[in-house]
């Protein structure tokens, strides 16, 4: 298909480019500009060069923030993908019982983040929560799910996985049901067992679906704010302070617009780096698969 005039592609791309500039390029540019100032919203901004970045780096606050956010994202993406795929394989069957199970699991995804955070704050209370009662019943030691710095981040990741597993389940189910039954029948006639059929027939066809689930789960993990704000407020000892919550703290609690802008710029760089790595990984996997298919 050839464009009628040289300007036709730009006319078609124009609306998207305008939205990209308004909602991405301009905000990022403004954050870069304000990151070189010290401003508390009450007095005039003071130009401080790179002092905001230097302050973040000197106290290793930035390094800890990046590490916590990446660790949280790895736990959320791995948990959502493995649980979503496992449940999709288990529940990809006809029958009212399986339909009810699929609907029950997906229902968690449509519940608001605030409701989920309030529910788990009560369930995970170290003294009066349901999990505390269960541990006490089986004579296990008390665990501070939300008050121990060693467990708080993993606890929030578990709550996030519980919330979005229904979404991963539905997407993987759509991918499983798009696999041609004739391929599975042919593999079965060739003597392939269940595991072999999944590994060599189903999984290669599910790779694009898995890439989509991984990408969207990664985006959700980087956007996490409500559960942190309601369940831990970034504590204990900043153990659950992620990028978005750290920006909120600097703006609304510390009134430090320059430092919040510096964190925003670094957050954007980390997002671009992670997205690039993820894109290269899935592109390399697709290329390797294509080379393997050509050889056969």
From TrEMBL:
Ranges annotated as spanning the membrane: 12-33, 70-91, 103-124, 152-179, 200-222, 260-282
InterPro entries recorded: ABC_transporter_permease, MetI-like, MetI-like_sf
Organism: Pendulispora rubella
Domain ABC transmembrane type-1: 66-278
Subcellular localization(s) per the UniProt record: Cell membrane
Family affiliation: Belongs to the binding-protein-dependent transport system permease family.
Membrane topology type: Multi-pass membrane protein
Descriptive protein name: Sugar ABC transporter permease
UniProt entry keywords in alphabetical sequence: Cell membrane, Membrane, Transmembrane, Transmembrane helix, Transport
